[in-house]
Design a protein that fits this description.
about 25% strand; four-stranded mixed beta sheet; 2 domains; UDP-n-acetylglucosamine1-carboxyvinyl-transferase, Chain; alpha/beta; about 30% helix; binds shikimate-3-phosphate
Length: about 425
């Protein structure tokens, strides 16, 4: 894909549904009794992998575009899958499903693509094993494929070394099948979509500070779920509108859950003109329309407790920092190394290609911004968030930018390039 500046971004856009919430709507819908009706479901490849896995375990799921109906069979209604469960590129699918599979009365094996088979799974294997689960890495390298056998699960109090919603959710889901209460304490609170949605389905779950506790064997009941727009997808248009002079865009119905909205706070600290309109706090997941106008940005420090609230937005924030005046320091973000790609290495490498003065550190990046940057060939490493970040950078660079493996955006945003083009007219 080749991209270059055409015109300022103008107009309105509804970004697709939130990826984390879409995954959970299928998983929890499958474990609930009765129908779960999901609207604005994200039809990205990752969420379709989750649908395929549950269909393989006998759950009827009807999908008509972004409308999905799940015919749940209750906590013990899944059936033994006919073959290996394929999570594709989706870490959320492997890690959350490991927790569910650990509680089943059948053997299972879950794996995914090349990237998934390099990502660390010990972080879920360890607490599950502590609960009594039988889960092994087939290659013995702490990665997928994971083989899971039936076992009796015990409630534990797990102190997680990482702030990871995938780890937290995995343990809570296994906790549904345990013989007592299970709690997870994180160093910093990570996204809380599982907590909000499990409670909505009827789980007995409490959250206090950085600890979440769940009671086993609840009766979960099918629900109607309206998935808000994904702030992680909106992030690319927020950035593009901020960077391209003369832009003004209205992003409609974006999820602004406080465990996910760190990017908005950082952009505002960098001098961004972003206004929240029509805020709606009536449902479990708050949302708002975001009015974004081009702004001149300055560097900042991104560190500490805010990191989990913007972990997936750090690639696009690094792009913003490259165009902002002054230095931006990102620290406490070593988790970036174990995402779909090593995002510290891949972002540093590609930012250097467009002429940016950037340095990789052990847990982040130092970006000295504000120089004019130029188009280049970008190696996305098939990481959707890297590809989308440089599609935005391309609009603010001189000349043309070519993105290798640009179609990887289908993981989280199949219509991304089309939506970007529409706003640039
Ligand atoms: C996710 C949690 C985050 C995030 C990922 C989605 C989720 O990962 O990066 O894109 O849906 O729970 P970690 O739990 O590894 O931080």
């Amino acid at each position: 894909m080749k991209l270059k500046y055409i015109a300022p971004l103008r107009g309105e856009l509804s970004v697709p549904g939130d990826k984390s919430i879409s995954h959970r709507s299928i998983m929890f819908g499958a474990l609930a009794q009765g129908r779960t009706e999901v609207s604005n479901f994200l039809t990205g490849a990752d969420c379709l992998s989750t649908i395929a896995c549950f269909r393989k375990m006998g759950i009827e799921i009807k999908q008509n575009g972004s409308d999905v109906t799940v015919s749940g069979k209750g906590l013990h209604g899944l059936s033994s899958p006919s073959g290996i469960l394929d999570a594709g590129n989706s870490g959320t699918t492997v890690r959350l499903m490991s927790g569910i599979l650990a509680g089943q009365r059948f053997d299972s094996c879950i794996t995914g693509d090349e990237s998934i088979c390099r990502r660390p799974m010990k972080r879920v294997m360890q607490p599950l094993t502590e609960m009594g689960a039988s889960i092994v890495s087939r290659q013995g390298n702490g990665c997928a494929p994971l083989e899971i056998r039936p076992a009796k699960l015990h409630g534990i109090r797990y102190q997680s070394p990482v702030a990871s919603a995938q780890v937290k959710s995995c343990v809570l889901l296994a906790g549904l099948y345990a013989d007592g209460k299970t709690s997870v304490t994180e160093p910093v609170v990570s996204r809380n979509h599982s907590e909000l949605m499990l409670r909505y389905f009827g789980a007995d779950l409490t959250a206090e500070g950085t600890t979440v506790t769940i009671a086993p064997e609840p009766v979960l009941t099918g629900q109607k779920i309206k998935v808000p727009g994904d702030i992680s997808s909106a992030a690319y248009f927020i950035a593009a509108a901020l960077l391209v002079p003369g832009s003004e865009v209205l992003l409609k119905n974006v999820g602004i859950n406080p465990t996910r909205d760190g990017m908005l706070r950082v952009c505002q600290a960098m001098g961004a003109d972003i206004t929240l309109l029509n805020e709606d706090h009536s449902g479990a997941e708050p949302c708002a329309d975001l009015l974004v106008r081009s702004s001149s940005l300055h560097g900042t420090v991104i560190e500490g407790e805010i990191i989990p609230t913007l972990i997936d937005e750090l690639p696009i924030l690094a792009v913003l920092a490259a165009f902002a005046d002054g230095t931006t320091i990102i620290r406490d973000a070593a988790e970036l190394k174990v995402k779909e790609s090593d995002r510290i290495a891949v972002m540093t490498n590609n930012l250097t290609r467009i002429g940016c003065d950037v340095e990789a550190t052990d847990d982040g990046m130092i970006i000295r911004g504000g120089k004019p940057l130029h188009g280049a060939v970008i190696d996305s490493q098939k990481d959707h968030r890297v590809a989308m970040s440089f599609a935005v950078a391309a609009l603010a660079c001189s000349g043309e930018t070519e993105i290798r493996d640009s179609d990887c955006v289908t993981i989280s945003y199949p219509g991304f390039y089309g939506d970007l083009r529409t706003l640039c007219r």
